[in-house]
Amino acid sequence: MLREIITDQFLLSGQSTEATKDDLYIVQDLKDTMHSRQEFCVGMAANMINEHKRIIIVMDNSKELVMINPIVMKTSGRHYEAEEACLCHQGTKKTKRYEKIKVQYYDENFKIKIKTFSDVTAQIIQHEIDHCNGILI
After folding, report:
1. Looking at the domain assignment, is residue 96 inside a domain?
2. How many other CB atoms are found less than 10 A from the CB of residue 36?
3. How far apart are CA 127 and CA 57, in angstroms?
4. Which of 10, 44, 85, 116 is most exposed, with minimal Cβ within 10 Å?
5. Measured between alpha carbons, how far is 133 from 101 in angstroms, rounded to an integer?
6. Containing domain of residue 107, as a range?
7. What's the predicted TM-score (pTM) here?
């Protein structure tokens, strides 16, 4: 189901809670909402559609990647300044990102995965995990 993007900074600044199998309906809502904005949207977190669960979806080399309860296990590479946009506010803001991250997460079938991401995909994942943690860029 297509959902409205939340722009209320107070609502977005809250911590998201762990997702369970009962929250899987949120995945389809995130996909539908992201598809409706596909020309300029490369990632979304559940709190952006007013669901405060640790679920994100990112574009990884032109494929959608759903991550449930993602945790950055390790960072490496250059720690650089990035300028990012977000559907939740106007304009861009500067933030620090790591070039490479190792992430543990559950996929849509609630199977645990551990994978290393780099460059733009790593940046998008960090942005969306920040959303889960109530951090707004």
Report:
1. yes
2. 12
3. 11
4. 10
5. 17
6. 9-132
7. 0.95
